[in-house]
Design brief:
Blueprint (H helix, E strand, L loop, with lengths): L4 H10 L1 H6 L5 H9 L7 E6 L8 E7 L2 E7 L12 H4 L15 E3 L7 E2 L2 H18 L1 E7 L2 E14 L6 H14 L1 E5 L2 H4 L3 H9 L16 E5 L3 H4 L3 H10 L3 E6 L4 H5 L2 E4 L5 H14 L5 H7 L12 E2 L2 E2 L2 E2 L4 E2 L25 H9 L4 H8 L3 H13 L3 E5 L1 H4 L4 H14 L10 E3 L6 H6 L6 E2 L3 E2 L8 H8 L1 H15 L25 H9 L5 E5 L3 H4 L3 H9 L3 E6 L23 E6 L8 E4 L4 E5 L12 H15 L9 H5 L9 H10 L1 E2 L4 E2 L12 E2 L36 E2 L27 E4 L4 E4 L37 E3 L6 E4 L52 E6 L15 H6 L4 E5 H7 L6 E5 L4 E9 L5 E3 L2 E3 L1 E5 L33 E7 L3
Parallel strand pairs: 7-8, 7-20, 9-10, 9-16, 10-11, 16-17, 20-21, 21-22, 33-39, 34-36
Antiparallel strand pairs: 1-2, 2-3, 4-5, 4-22, 6-7, 12-13, 14-15, 18-19, 23-24, 24-28, 25-26, 25-27, 29-30, 31-32, 33-40, 35-36, 35-40, 37-38
Helix pairs in contact: 5-25, 6-25, 6-27, 8-18, 12-15, 12-16, 12-18, 15-16, 20-21, 22-24
Length: about 1000
C-alpha cells in the first residue's frame, strides 16, 4: 500500500515524538524541528502546472493570503512529486510586482495606459462588439447565383484558450457562436493543428493514443520531432522506467539534445524531411515482410480494394486541379459492394490497399532517404530493424513534426508504420502527440478553433443550411451529438420543430480560411475591426511577426486578458520602428488571475481531466477568465435586450445562467449533460439520445459528472490493475475513462489478447461482455467478437478499422439515405508523400516538377510574404523552445530565477559554420531571412554537424523563440525571421524549416 507523503508529514507534525521515537529519533529535537516548520498552519491546496501538457500536480501552501511554498505533488500519477525548472519557479507568480492588477485603457494615438474600472472596461468592450457586429453583419451571401443564410460577422475575432480552463473554453465557444463569430482561434493552430486531422484519418480520433505512464510498457521508443526531455521533462521519468526494463530509445532530431543524451540511438535529420525517413522504414518493413499480417487483416483497411480511379504519378495523386491547387478527392475511394461497403479481398490483390502501398513506397529506398534526410543509409536500416524487433513500440512527437507544410502527412507516416508493426491499441504502443500547453488539448476539445464545434463536430458552412444538410456531410452518428450540443446551448428553446435552433448558428464560407493567420491578414485589409485575446501572445509566438504588428495597428479595438503586460497588449509602445501617435487602435488590458488563483478543469496530453483548485484569491482587481467571459456576455446581452431584429433573436433564446459563486462547477455539469426526462446528469456517452431528450455540451466528456459526482476530483493513486500505469480511479479520462484508445486492437478477431503477458482488455465468454484493466474501447460492451460491433477496433472511423489509405468514405445507414458516419481524408493525398519545404536548400529528387506541397497557396499577401532562395539564404533555420522558458515567455520571463538561467535569444550553430564566419562562442551575429533580421549571440556547438544532402553540404542552425520586448528579460524575437506558409489542411506554419543567412555582426 502506498502512503501519501503529505499525510505522513501531517501525522508526524501532529505527534512527532510518538510516531518517530520508534525509529530512533531524538524526541526533543524532533519536536523543535516540527515547531519551526515553515508550513505549519499553512493552507494546503493542489493545482496543475501551467506549462507543457504533462499535467503535473502541484501542492501550494498559503499563509495570511500569500503563497509561501510550491512543490510537486508526490501523490500525482504523472510527476510523482517532480517538477521541471519552470514549474518549480512558479511560487513567484502570485507575489510578482510585475502583475497587472487593474483594467487599463490605451486611447487612440496615446503613448500610455490609464487605469479604468471593471464596469467601464466591460462596457467599452461590449459596446464595441455590438457596434462592430451591427455595422458588419453578413446575413446572406451568394454562390453561383444561389443565396444562403450565413448569420455571421467577419469583423470580430477571438483568440486564446490553451491557458484557460475547459469551462472557460466552453463559454468562449458558446459566446462567439451567439455573436456570429467565424474567426475563433487559439495556440493549437500554431502548434498541433496538424495532429487532429492526421490521427483522425487513421484512427477516427485526433488525440494522443496512450498515456505518459504507459511509456514504461514499451520495448522501443521512437522520439521524432520532439526534445521531450527538455520540453516535456516529466515524460523522461517514464522513458527511463522503460529503459530500466531494457527498452531501446531512438531520437531523430536536427540537434543532439538532452533527449539525445538519454537515447541509445541518435540520428541527425535535415528539418522537413521526416516523410522520406519514415517512408524508408515503411518500405523496409514491407520489403522484408516484417509486418503483422493478422493485425493488418483484422484491424486495418489493408485488404480493402481501392477504386480504379486512384493513381499517383510524378508527385501528384489523381484528381489534381492545377488552377485551384486542390484535388478531387472522390478519386481516392474504395470499390464498394451492393450495400455500399468497401470490398475486402486479400493483401495480395492488385487493387488492395496493401499492394497500392507497396507500389507507392518502393521509391523510398534507404539510399534515396539518406540523400534527402542526411541520415546515413545504414543508420536508417538499423533504426528500422530495432523498430521491427522490439515490439511493443511507441512513438513520441511534437512540433518538430507538426510545424511543416506537410505537417498532417508527417504524422500520418507514423500511423502507417505503427499499423504495419501492429503497434496501436496495446500497452507500450501508439502515437503520442506531446501537447505543449496546459490545456491545449481541452481548448481543442471545446473547439476554440474555427473549423470545429465542441467534441470535434464540423463547423456548419454556408452550403449546410439545415441540420439535414449538415448530417449529409457528417453522418447521423455525429448528428446526435450536434443535437445535444444545441440542447445545451438553447435548452427548451431547441426542439425538432425549429431544427434545434441550427438555422440561427453562424455558417462559415466553405471556401474560406478563418485561421489566426487570416485574422491579421484581414486586419491588413481593413476588414477586421475587433480582436479579443486571452492567454496568448501572438506578437511573439506567431510566424512572420511583421504581419502581426501591422495587423494590430489596423484594428479598431484590441482587448487582452493576461496576468502580465505582453508584447501583444503593448504593441503600440514606442520602440524601434513604432510610433504610438500614428496608431489609432484602442487597447484594453484586463487583469486575469494567474493559474494558481483559478479553479476548474483542464486536460493533459493523455486526455486526463483534472480539477485545479484556487488556493489564493486573485491579486488586486484580477478576475478569473470564466468570470470575465460571463460578465462580458451578460453585458452584451443587456445591450441587445430591446432589439427586435432577426439577427439578435439568438440572445433571447440562448441558455446562459451560471451562479456567480459556483460558475466552474455549473458549467462542467452543462458540459457533462443531462437527461431531461429525469433531470439527472448523464452517466456515460451511451445515455446520449438523438431526439432532444438529452443534452451535452461536449459529448466526449459525457460521464465526467457521473452519478452526480465530479469525477475529476478523484485521487486514487494506488489502484493500478495490471500494473500498466492506468490508475482508473485517478481523475477522469475522455472518452468514457478509456486510457489507451483503440484497445480492442490489443486482441485478435476472437477477442483474445495477442499477448497474455501484457494484456489490456478481452472478451469474457462466461460474463458475455468485454472486460479488462482498462475500459474497453468498443461500441457496446456486450456485443462480442461474433458481431459487427465486436469487430470495430477503430469505431470512430466510418469503416470501423484503422485506415492506412485515407480513402473518401461515407458509411451508409442500414436504412435511409443519410450516411451513418463519414471518414476524414486529408486534402493533399491518401498516402503521405514527401515534398520539400517552401524554402529549401535543395531540389526534390523524388519528382523535380513538383517541389513543394502542390496544394499549398503561398504567398497570400504581397509585400509581407517573400520567399527566400538558397543563393541569398544558404542555411536552414529550425526553431523551438528552451527548457527554462515557455512559449512567448509571458510567465517565465517575469521570473528572475529563470532569466538567470537563460536570459536572451541566441543562435546555435555548428563549429564548421562558426569557423567559416570567423565567429567565436558568445559573439554577436546578424541573422536575416526574406522577412526580417535580428542580432543575437552565437552558441558554437558540436551538437549540430553539417549534413550531406544530394551530394552537397547543408548547414542547419537553431534558435529559440521565447523572447520579445517585454518582461524582466527582453531580447530579439526569432519569429521575425520565420515563414507563415502553411499546411493546406490546417494552415499550420513551417517554422521548423526556413532559410536564413548568418554573418558576423558588423560585417
Amino acid at each position: 500500500m502506498k502512503v501519501s507523503r503529505r499525510t505522513l508529514l501531517k501525522t508526524t507534525a501532529a505527534g512527532a515524538g510518538l510516531s518517530l521515537a520508534g525509529f530512533g529519533f531524538n524526541i526533543p529535537s524532533v519536536k523543535a524541528a516540527v515547531k519551526g516548520f515553515k508550513l505549519d498552519d499553512a493552507q494546503e491546496y493542489t493545482s496543475i502546472c501551467t506549462f507543457c501538457a504533462c499535467g503535473c500536480g502541484m501542492v501550494g501552501y498559503v499563509k495570511n493570503g500569500k503563497m509561501i511554498n510550491l512543490e510537486g505533488d508526490s501523490d500525482h500519477i504523472v510527476n510523482e512529486g517532480g517538477l521541471c525548472s519552470k514549474g518549480a519557479s512558479m511560487s513567484v507568480i502570485p507575489n510578482s510586482e510585475n502583475r497587472n492588477l487593474t483594467p487599463k485603457y490605451r486611447a487612440p494615438k496615446s503613448d500610455k495606459w490609464v487605469d479604468i474600472s471593471w464596469d467601464e472596461a466591460l462596457d467599452k468592450i461590449a459596446s464595441k462588439i455590438k457596434q462592430v457586429r451591427d455595422d458588419n453583419w453578413i446575413s446572406q451571401e451568394t454562390e453561383n447565383g444561389k443565396t444562403y443564410n450565413v448569420n455571421r460577422c467577419d469583423a470580430l475575432s477571438f483568440v486564446g484558450g490553451a491557458q484557460v480552463h475547459n469551462e472557460e473554453c466552453y463559454l468562449i465557444a458558446k459566446m462567439t457562436k451567439m455573436l456570429g463569430v467565424a474567426f475563433l482561434e487559439h495556440q493549437a493552430r500554431l502548434c498541433h493543428s496538424s495532429t487532429v486531422p492526421a490521427l483522425s484519418t487513421a484512427f477516427g480520433r485526433g488525440a494522443m493514443t496512450n498515456t505518459w505512464q504507459d511509456l514504461k510498457n514499451a520495448k522501443v521508443i521512437l522520439i521524432e520531432g520532439s526534445n521531450a526531455a527538455e520540453n516535456h521533462p516529466m515524460s523522461a521519468k517514464w522513458i527511463m522506467r522503460a529503459k530500466d526494463k531494457g527498452a531501446v530509445v531512438i531520437h531523430v532530431d536536427p540537434r543532439y539534445t538532452r533527449t539525445s543524451k538519454l537515447a541509445d540511438i541518435h540520428a541527425q535529420i535535415r528539418p522537413g524531411t521526416d516523410i522520406a525517413f519514415l517512408g524508408a522504414i515503411i518500405n523496409y518493413i514491407l520489403e522484408t515482410e516484417s509486418y503483422d499480417k493478422d493485425y493488418l487483416l483484422t484491424h486495418t483497411n489493408a485488404a480493402m480494394l481501392v477504386s480504379k480511379d486512384y493513381d499517383f504519378n510524378d508527385g501528384l495523386f489523381s484528381g489534381y486541379n492545377e488552377a485551384t491547387h486542390s484535388y478531387d478527392k472522390k478519386k481516392w475511394a474504395y470499390q464498394l459492394d451492393a450495400n455500399g461497403k468497401p470490398v475486402v479481398d486479400s493483401l495480395t490483390h492488385p487493387d488492395s490497399v496493401m499492394m497500392k502501398m507497396r507500389e507507392f513506397y518502393k521509391r523510398y529506398d534507404l539510399q534515396t532517404a539518406s540523400n534527402i534526410t542526411g541520415i546515413p543509409a545504414e543508420d536508417i536500416k538499423k533504426i528500422a530493424e530495432v523498430m521491427i524487433n522490439n515490439r511493443p513500440g511507441t512513438v513520441m512527437y511534437a512540433l518538430g513534426m507538426t510545424q511543416h507544410t506537410v505537417g498532417v502527412q508527417n504524422i500520418r507516416s507514423f500511423t502507417v508504420m505503427q499499423f504495419l508493426l501492429g503497434n496501436v491499441g496495446k500497452p507500450g504502443t501508439g502515437i503520442n502527440a506531446l501537447r505543449g500547453e496546459p490545456n491545449v488539448q481541452g481548448s481543442t476539445d471545446f473547439a476554440v478553433l474555427f473549423n470545429y464545434y465542441p467534441g470535434y463536430l464540423n463547423t456548419p458552412n454556408h452550403r449546410q443550411q439545415t441540420l439535414y444538410d449538415w448530417t449529409q456531410s457528417s453522418g447521423t452518428f455525429r448528428r446526435k451529438f450536434m443535437v445535444n450540443l444545441m440542447k445545451s446551448w438553447f435548452g427548451e428553446n431547441a426542439n425538432a420543430e425549429n431544427d434545434f435552433c441550427y438555422p440561427l448558428l453562424p455558417k462559415i464560407n466553405a471556401g474560406q480560411n478563418y485561421s489566426i493567420y487570416r485574422i491579421f491578414e484581414t486586419a491588413l485589409e481593413k476588414k477586421m475591426k475587433f480582436l479579443y485575446i486571452t492567454g496568448q501572445n501572438p506578437l511573439v509566438t506567431s510566424p512572420n511577426l511583421n504581419i502581426v504588428q501591422a495587423g494590430l495597428e489596423n484594428l479598431e479595438m484590441l482587448v487582452c486578458a493576461d496576468p502580465f503586460e505582453t508584447e501583444t497588449s503593448c504593441f503600440w509602445q514606442k520602440r524601434e520602428g513604432v510610433d504610438p501617435s500614428t496608431i489609432d487602435t484602442e487597447v484594453i488590458l484586463l487583469p486575469a488571475a494567474s493559474f494558481l488563483e483559478k479553479e476548474g478543469t483542464l486536460i493533459n496530453s493523455s486526455r486526463l481531466v483534472q480539477w485545479r483548485y484556487a488556493g489564493l484569491k486573485p491579486l488586486g482587481d484580477a478576475k478569473q477568465d470564466i468570470e470575465i467571459i460571463d460578465l462580458l456576455f451578460q453585458k452584451i446581452r443587456e445591450k441587445y435586450a430591446d432589439s427586435t431584429e432577426e439577427k439578435d433573436k439568438i440572445f433571447k433564446l440562448v441558455k446562459w445562467d451560471y451562479p456567480a459563486d459556483n460558475r466552474s462547477d455549473s458549467v462542467l455539469k452543462e458540459i457533462n449533460g443531462y437527461n431531461h426526462k429525469t433531470g439527472e446528469l448523464l452517466k456515460s456517452i451511451g445515455e446520449i439520445q438523438a431526439d432532444g431528450s438529452t443534452s451535452t455540451g461536449c459529448w466526449v466528456y459525457a460521464g465526467i459528472y457521473a452519478n452526480g459526482e465530479n469525477q475529476t476530483l478523484r485521487k486514487d493513486f494506488q489502484t493500478d490493475p495490471g500494473n500498466l500505469g492506468i490508475f482508473p480511479r485517478y481523475a477522469w479520462t475522455w472518452p468514457g475513462n478509456i486510457h489507451i484508445l483503440y484497445n480492442r486492437a490489443s486482441c485478435d478477431k476472437n477477442g483474445r489478447p495477442y499477448d497474455e503477458n501484457n494484456k489490456l482488455v478481452w472478451w469474457d465468454e462466461n460474463a458475455g461482455r468485454w472486460t479488462g484493466y482498462d475500459v474497453p474501447d468498443v461500441p457496446s460492451a456486450v456485443d462480442g467478437p461474433d458481431t459487427a460491433n465486436g469487430q470495430k477496433p477503430f469505431r470512430m472511423s466510418g469503416e470501423g478499422v484503422g485506415r492506412i489509405f485515407g480513402a473518401v468514405y461515407a458509411d451508409p445507414e442500414a436504412q435511409g439515405s443519410l450516411p451513418r458516419d463519414v471518414s476524414y481524408t486529408p486534402g493533399d493525398g491518401p498516402f503521405p508523400e514527401f515534398y520539400e519545404p517552401v524554402e529549401s536548400p535543395t531540389k526534390n529528387i523524388l519528382h523535380e516538377n513538383v517541389a513543394s506541397n502542390p496544394c499549398l497557396i503561398y504567398p497570400r499577401v504581397k509585400g509581407f510574404q517573400e520567399i527566400g532562395d538558397k543563393k541569398d539564404f544558404p542555411y536552414v533555420l529550425c526553431t523551438s523552445a528552451v527548457s527554462e522558458h515557455w512559449c512567448s515567455g509571458a510567465y517565465t520571463r517575469n521570473v528572475p530565477w529563470l532569466n538567470e538561467l537563460v536570459k536572451e535569444t541566441f543562435i546555435e550553430m555548428p563549429v564548421s559554420l562558426a569557423e567559416k564566419l570567423g565567429v567565436k562562442n558568445g559573439e554577436k551575429v546578424k541573422v536575416n531571412s526574406a522577412r526580417g533580421e535580428v542580432v543575437v549571440k552565437a552558441m558554437v556547438t558540436n551538437r549540430i554537424h553539417t549534413l550531406n544532402i544530394n551530394g552537397e553540404e547543408c548547414t542547419v542552425v537553431w534558435m529559440p523563440y521565447n523572447w520579445g520586448f517585454k518582461g524582466l528579460s527582453s531580447a530579439a524575437s526569432t519569429n521575425l525571421l520565420t515563414i507563415d506558409a502553411g499546411d493546406p489542411n490546417t494552415w499550420i506554419q513551417e517554422t521548423k524549416a526556413c532559410l536564413v543567412n548568418v554573418v558576423k555582426a558588423g560585417a
